[in-house]
Design a protein that fits this description.
The complex is a heterodimer of chains A (about 350) and B (about 140). Chain A is mainly beta and about 350 residues long. In chain A, a hairpin with a 6-residue loop joins strand 13 and strand 14. Chain A has 1 helix and 22 strands. The termini of chain A are far apart. With about 140 residues, chain B is of the alpha+beta class. Chain B is built from 6 helices and 5 strands, in the order H-H-E-E-E-E-H-H-E-H-H. In chain B, about 30% of the residues are buried. At the A-B interface, loops of A face helix 2 and helix 5 of B.
C-alpha cells in the first residue's frame, strides 16, 4: 500500500520539514521525554486509532517503543491492543518520519502516509494509505504546567483508503475522513495537568473546513489553563480562537456496559482516574468576523492505560468516538456540515 | 531444567517484579504481610507466603489464610479481559475462600501486582511464555 499510482502531494516538502521523529532530550531529574505519531480513521462502520510512540525511561538512555491500536465499531464494540517492542527490534531515526516497530511500519512518501500493522493476538491487519487534504502545521508550544510543555504538529484532515482485516474479515476503507498529529516533549504521565482535545473532520471530502479543539486544565479538570479552537479552510488555518473566544458546555454522562481497557490487563485494575465522558458537547467560538457552533454527540469510548512516571499511579487516556454538526458564518460565508469526531481526555491518578 | 509449571511462573513473576518495580513488590509485602495464599490450579498446587525479606513460593500447606482454586486458562482469560473477576467468581471459574479481611488484603495486593506488571516488560514477556505453556 505504498506509493503506487497515487497523485504526488504538491506540498510534500512541507511534510518532510514538519513531521519527523525528534532527538530524545532528557534533563537530569526532569520529566521524561515522550513522542508519538497518531492517526485516526473514521470509517462509517468503525473508527480506527493507530499510535506509534516512544517513551523515555528513568535510565534516560533507552526509550520504550509502543504501538497502540484501537477500533470502535458502530455497534458499540471496541477492540485493540498495545504492543511493546524491544528497542533493538525497532527502527526510528530522528529527523525522519519513517519508523518500523517489529514488522509494523509507518511511512511517508510523495503520495502521503502509509500504515502497515499486524496485531497477531487480536488478528488485526491494517494496510492504509492516507492522503493529506491540508498542509501540516507545527503549533506553538503548549504549556501543561509550570515545568512541563508539549510540542504539537497537526495534519487535521486526510482521506484514508486501504484494507483493515478484522478476525479474518476484510473491511475495505475508501476515502474515509482521517486525522494525524505528532506530539513530543518532556512531561510526566501523572503530572499536574489534564488535557482534552478533539478533531472535527467533515464526513464528505468536498467540504474544505475542519477544526481542532483543545483544552489544558489542572489535574482535576476543574480549572482551565488554556483552550483553543482552530478552524482550517482548504490547506491552511483560517481562524484561531483562544481563551474567552470559546465557550464549551457538556451535557449528560455517557454510559456503556463494558469499556475496553488496553493494555487488557488494565481491566483488572481498579482505576479511579477514569474520567467521566459527556453524552454531548457544544463548542461555540466568536470573534474575527466569525461565529461558529459545533454540536457533538458522543457514541462510545475506550481507555488506554499508561503508568505514571513516578509512583504506582496510572494515567487514563480516554478515546471517545462521536459525530458532529458544525454551523455558523466566517467572513460572511456560511458553514454547515456534518462530521466525525475523535476526542481524547487525559486524566491521571494523583 | 526446572519444569515450567504455575509455581515456577509465580516465582519468576515475583522475581521480575522485585527487580523492575520494587515499589510494587514492597507494597504487596506491606498490604498482605504474612498472608499465606494456597494456589490450587488444575495442574499444580502451591503456596505463596507473602513475607519479608522475600515472598516465598513452595508446596501445599494446610494452614493457608486464603485458598484460590481455578483452571490455569482462567488466568489468561482474566488478563486478556475475556472474563472479569466478578464473572469468574459468579461462574465458579475462580473460587476464593478466606476471611473477608484476608480477601480484601489479597485483592489490594493483586492491585499492586498488576500495577507493577504493567510497568515490567520482562513480566509481560513471561506472560507470553505462560500462554505458550497453557497451549503445550
Amino acid at each position: 500500500m505504498e506509493g503506487g499510482s497515487a497523485t504526488p502531494l504538491p506540498n510534500y516538502a512541507e511534510f518532510l520539514t514538519a513531521d519527523y521523529w525528534h532527538h530524545p532530550v532528557q534533563t537530569a531529574g526532569g520529566p521524561l521525554f515522550k513522542e508519538w505519531s497518531h492517526f485516526c480513521v473514521m470509517q462509517d462502520d468503525f473508527d480506527l486509532l493507530v499510535n506509534f510512540s516512544h517513551l523515555g525511561t528513568r535510565s534516560g538512555v533507552e526509550t520504550r517503543p509502543r504501538l497502540t491500536v484501537l477500533l470502535s465499531y458502530a455497534n458499540g464494540l471496541w477492540d485493540g491492543d498495545m504492543l511493546e517492542f524491544a528497542p533493538e527490534d525497532c527502527t526510528l531515526v530522528p529527523g525522519r518520519f519513517d519508523a518500523a516497530f517489529g514488522k509494523n511500519r509507518m511511512l511517508l512518501d510523495e503520495t502521503g502516509y502509509h500504515l502497515n500493522c499486524h496485531l497477531q493476538q487480536r488478528d488485526i491487519t491494517i494496510a492504509l494509505d492516507l492522503t493529506p487534504s491540508v498542509s501540516p502545521v507545527v503549533a506553538n508550544t503548549v504549556r501543561l504546567s509550570d515545568r512541563e510543555a508539549i510540542r504539537w504538529m497537526v495534519v487535521p484532515h486526510l482521506r484514508a483508503a486501504g484494507l483493515v482485516t478484522l478476525q479474518g474479515t476484510p473491511q475495505e476503507i475508501g476515502n474515509a475522513p482521517a486525522y494525524h498529529d505528532r506530539n513530543w516533549g518532556c512531561f510526566s504521565w501523572g503530572g499536574s495537568y489534564a488535557w482534552e482535545w478533539a478533531t472535527l473532520v467533515p464526513a464528505e471530502e468536498s467540504v474544505d473546513w475542519c477544526l481542532v479543539y483543545s483544552r489544558i486544565s489542572d489535574q482535576s479538570r476543574g480549572v482551565t489553563r488554556s483552550q483553543s479552537l482552530i478552524l482550517w479552510k482548504g490547506r491552511k488555518p483560517n481562524r484561531k480562537f483562544f481563551g474567552r473566544d470559546i465557550t464549551v458546555e457538556t451535557h449528560g454522562h455517557l454510559r456503556q456496559d463494558r469499556t475496553l481497557q488496553i493494555p487488557r490487563m488494565m481491566a483488572l485494575v481498579l482505576n479511579p482516574s477514569a474520567p467521566d465522558v459527556p453524552q454531548a458537547m457544544t463548542i461555540q467560538a466568536h470573534g474575527f468576523g466569525a461565529d461558529l457552533r459545533a454540536e457533538i454527540a458522543f457514541e462510545g469510548f475506550g481507555h488506554i492505560g499508561v503508568p505514571n512516571d513516578r509512583g504506582l499511579g496510572l494515567t487514563t487516556l480516554c478515546e471517545i468516538a462521536g459525530r458532529c454538526r458544525i454551523s455558523g458564518q466566517v467572513a460572511g460565508e456560511d458553514i454547515d456540515f456534518a462530521g466525525r469526531v475523535q476526542m481524547e481526555i487525559n486524566c491521571a491518578e494523583p | 531444567m526446572q519444569s515450567r509449571d504455575l509455581p515456577w511462573y509465580i516465582t519468576q513473576a515475583l522475581s521480575h517484579l522485585s527487580r523492575d518495580v520494587p515499589a510494587a513488590y514492597a507494597a504487596i509485602q506491606d498490604t498482605c504481610a504474612e498472608l499465606r495464599l494456597s494456589v490450587m490450579s488444575d495442574r499444580s498446587e502451591s503456596t505463596v507466603w507473602i513475607t519479608q525479606p522475600r515472598i516465598e513460593v513452595f508446596g501445599p500447606v494446610s494452614n493457608a489464610d486464603v485458598t484460590a482454586q481455578f483452571q490455569e486458562t482462567v488466568i489468561t482469560d482474566l488478563i486478556d479481559a475475556r472474563l472479569s473477576i466478578g464473572e469468574a467468581l459468579a461462574q465458579d471459574l475462580l473460587v476464593l475462600v478466606g476471611s473477608t479481611e484476608n480477601l480484601d488484603r489479597l485483592v489490594a495486593g493483586l492491585q499492586f501486582f498488576l500495577r507493577g506488571a504493567i510497568r515490567s516488560r520482562a513480566l509481560q514477556e513471561l506472560l507470553d511464555d505462560f500462554r505458550g505453556h497453557l497451549v503445550a
